[in-house]
Design goal:
Two copies of one chain form a homodimer. Chain A is an alpha/beta fold. Chain A is globular, with a radius of gyration of 20 Å. In chain A, strands 3-2-1-4-5 form a five-stranded mixed sheet. A four-stranded mixed sheet of chain A has the order 8-7-6-9, with helices on both faces. The first copy, chain A, folds into two domains: 98 residues, Nucleotidyltransferase, domain 5; 166 residues, 2-Layer Sandwich (Nucleotidyltransferase, domain 5). Chains A and B meet through β8, α4, α5, α7 and α10 of A and β8, α4, α5, α7 and α10 of B.
Chain lengths: 296, 296
C-alpha cells in the first residue's frame, strides 16, 4: 500500500504526517525545528529525516513513501530550496520529493486547494493568497530584520523601543515598563540593550501579549504600537486581498483565542472580506499535497 | 614631565592622543576598534593597551601617563564599564584611570567643558547635552536594535524595507531599487533577506547616502524615509535641547559636507537652536579631560 508523507518544518519544530491513498491519517511524529538556509541546509535535512523516519516507522514499519511533500521555512527562495532539495533527495525517503514552504502547507490545510487568503501572525507575519485560477500571491514574510511587520517579534521590539524613548524623555511614562522588564528578567531599561542582543526571535515575540494587554488597559504607547501593527497587517491583507476569497487567521496572535484576533478580524471585515474559522494543520496539509501529486 | 592620554574607542577604531601639562599634543596612535561589553571586555582592553602604548612610546619612550581618560563605546552602562575599568587598571598605563564614553570625549572636544548640544549621526545616532550647571542629558543611542533612530544604519534598513514592500505590491516601485541592490552586490530584492543577516552594521549604514540621493532626486519612498529620519532626530534634539546651548552636528551624515547636514540644520534651526561648526576630535577631547582631572 502506497503512503504519502507531509512535513511542516519551521524554527520551533518539524512535524511529519503519514496518510494513505484514501487520505486517512496513519501516523504522526515530531522533531526539533530548523529553518532552511543556503549555507547550512543540514540541520533542516536531519530534522526532516528523523521526523519522517519516525512517522513511517509508526505507520507500520515502512521505509519509504510514494511522495514526500516537505514544507520548510526558508525554502521560499531559489538557493536555499535547491540546497535542501539536493540533500533530501539523497535520503531516499520517497519515490518522489517536492519541497515547498511551511506557508504553502498551511494554506493547503486551510483551503484544500481552493482559493482563499491565509493571514499568519505569530513570531513572524505573512499573508498568502490564491485565487480561483490558482494564481498565488505572497505579501510580507521578509524575515525579522526587513519584514514581519505586525508580528509578535515586531510588537515585542516596538514595545521595548517605546520604553527607551520614555526612559530618555522623548515620550511619557508607559505602563508597559513593569511587565516588559519582568518578562525580560531585567531590572532597568538600560539592560534591555544587552538583553535584546542575545534574545531569540521567540523570546522577543513572547513580549507581544504583554504589549497587547497594556493596550487593552488603555496605555497610550501600547495602544499606538498595537494600532500600527494592525495597520501593517491590514495593508498586507488589502494588497493580497485583491485576489479575493475567504480569510483564515492563524498563528499565536490571531488564531481563535489569540490576543489580536478581534482587532485583526475587524480590520479584515472593514476591507469587505470574511473571516472563516478553518482548522489549520500544516503537516496534514503537506501530506495532502503529497497525495494530490501522486502519479504526477 | 607629566603627560596625559586620551582614548576614543568605538566599533571602527581606537585612537589615543598624548598631551603635555600645557595641553600641547605630543603624539597620536591608532589601533583596531572594539565595543565594550560586560561579557567580553578583553578585545577593547587589548586595543586600548596597544594604542596607548604606541602613543606613549612615540611621545618620547614613555611607559606611563599621569592620567588616562578612556572614552569607550559601550561603557555607558554600569556592568560593562566596571568590567573594562577593572581590566584596564591591571595594565598600569597611568597613575590614574577614568573610563567614560566615546560620546563624552567627543562632547568635551566640541565644547571644552562648557554647555552645548552634540548631535552625532553616523552609523548610529545619539544626542548629548550639557547645561550651564554641568547637568548632562542623553537622548537616543540605544543601539541598532532598539534605537539609533535616524542613523545611517536606520536609514539603510528602512531603504531596504521599502524595497520589500514595493516588491510584494504594498507600495509603488521606487528608484532606490537599482542603487541599493548594486550597493549590496545582489540582483533581486529576495536576496536582501539573506544579505542583511550577514551584513555588518557599517555595511548597512553605507546604504544611507544612496537613500538620501534618491530622495534628492524626488523618489517618494526615499523622501519619506529621509523625512522620518529627520523627524526622529528633531524629536531627539528637542528633548535634549530643553537644556539649551549651541548645537554641533557630527558624524558622517551631518558633519560639514554630510548628505543630511542641510536637512538636520534646518530642523535644529526650527527649534530655535543655533548650529555652530566646531571641530570634533574625540581622542583629543579625552586627553583634555585627562588633563582637567590632574591632581583631582
Amino acid at each position: 500500500m502506497s503512503v504519502f508523507v507531509g512535513v511542516d518544518g519551521g524554527g520551533t519544530r518539524t512535524r511529519a504526517v503519514v496518510i494513505d491513498a484514501e487520505g486517512r491519517e496513519l501516523a504522526r511524529a515530531e522533531d526539533e525545528g530548523a529553518v532552511v538556509t543556503a549555507h547550512r541546509p543540514d540541520d533542516a535535512v536531519e530534522a526532516v529525516r528523523r521526523a519522517v523516519g519516525a512517522a513511517l516507522e509508526k505507520s507500520g514499519g515502512r521505509r519509504q513513501a510514494e511522495v514526500l511533500w516537505a514544507g520548510l521555512a526558508g525554502a521560499g527562495t531559489a538557493a536555499p530550496r535547491a540546497a535542501v532539495t539536493r540533500a533530501l533527495r539523497g535520503l531516499d525517503l520517497a519515490e518522489r520529493l517536492i519541497v515547498g514552504t511551511d506557508v504553502e502547507a498551511a494554506f493547503y490545510s486551510a483551503f484544500a486547494g481552493g482559493p482563499g487568503l491565509l493571514v499568519i501572525v505569530g513570531t513572524g507575519s505573512i499573508v498568502w493568497a490564491r485565487n480561483e485560477d490558482g494564481a498565488e500571491r505572497r505579501v510580507g514574510g521578509w524575515g525579522r530584520t526587513l519584514g514581519d511587520e505586525g508580528s509578535g517579534y515586531w510588537i515585542g521590539l516596538e514595545g521595548l523601543r517605546r520604553l527607551t524613548r520614555s526612559a530618555d524623555g522623548r515620550a511619557e511614562p508607559t505602563t508597559m515598563e513593569g511587565p516588559l522588564l519582568q518578562a525580560c528578567g531585567i531590572h532597568a531599561v538600560d539592560e534591555a540593550v544587552g538583553w535584546v542582543e542575545t534574545a531569540t526571535k521567540s523570546q522577543i515575540a513572547s513580549l507581544a501579549p504583554h504589549v497587547v494587554a497594556c493596550a487593552d488597559e488603555g496605555d497610550d504607547a501600547a495602544t499606538s504600537v498595537v494600532a500600527e501593527a494592525v495597520e501593517h497587517l491590514e495593508v498586507m491583507v488589502r494588497t493580497a486581498g485583491e485576489v479575493g476569497g475567504d480569510v483564515v487567521l492563524w498563528g499565536g496572535l490571531v488564531a481563535p483565542g489569540g490576543p489580536l484576533r478581534g482587532r485583526v478580524s475587524e480590520a479584515v471585515g472593514s476591507l469587505g472580506l470574511r473571516v472563516v474559522a478553518e482548522e489549520v494543520d500544516p503537516p496534514l496539509g503537506a501530506a495532502r499535497l503529497a497525495r494530490a501529486a501522486r502519479g504526477g
